[in-house]
Predict the 3D structure of the following.
Amino acid sequence: MSALWKILALVTVFASLANAEVKVAVLHPLLGDLVQKVGGDQVLVVDLMGPDGDPHKFEPGAKELRAAKGAQLYFVCGKGLEPYLPKLRDAVGSERVIEVGETLPTLKAEVLCDHDGHAHLHEEDDPHWWHSIDCWRRAATRVRRELSVLDPANAGAYRKRAAAVRKELLALQTWASRELTKVPTEHRTLATAHAAFAYFCNEHKWKMLAVQGLNRERVDSLKFVAEVTEAIRKEKVRAVFPEQRSNPKMLRTVAEKAGVVVGSPLIADGGDSIEEMFRHNVKTIVAALGRKQ
């Protein structure tokens, strides 16, 4: 494509957005990806966090709030993820804040925690529902309904796009399931830095082992590290996976002691494309754990 055609294409996109009938804000870029696909030219989406933000800690500042001024809806992940949510409800009104996760299944993540120097397994709610393609398909329906209530004149267009998105996601789910069969059954344990992949593992019938639980900032005892190392050996783990924004020293220490490799980083909390996140994570897992030709 020539430079002139690229410029004309961008002008067309910006003109369409300028004429959008609905303005919404999102507290996670992956939600922005979904809302834009369902909303199309009728919706202007303002992503408050950006692809490099941490949804566990993010709070929009004055700049982000100015960008969101006039937003008719705020789409958020929910499930206790966003610490800013109570303030947001107070500021814009609860009726304008749409918790996409509230209608999705809640899963428990089995978390290894350091209790007085011992590795203790207990369950905590996992808010990372975006690692389930089935949850995204349900979320597409939720977004379509909310946009249709706000903008009934374009309900037909939202319905058509949501159906297309659900079809694309089903194809992505089929691809992911097929790729993951390349990993032998006995090695289908996903060992990661923190407990962000319960939904992914549940969807594909894998086991999850999280070295740091739901908290990336823990400092663990030497005895706990030794017991985690033993758990990795017991589960026949072949690789442990850091994340793009979390590569703790403990993970490398455990991998070295257990005699397993450190895989390439997974996308856990960030990213701005649903499909790119899933394709990256599945390819990374299969590259480390799949059958060697």
Remarks:
- The radius of gyration is 21 Å.
- Confidence is low (pLDDT under 50) at residues 4-18, 214-219.
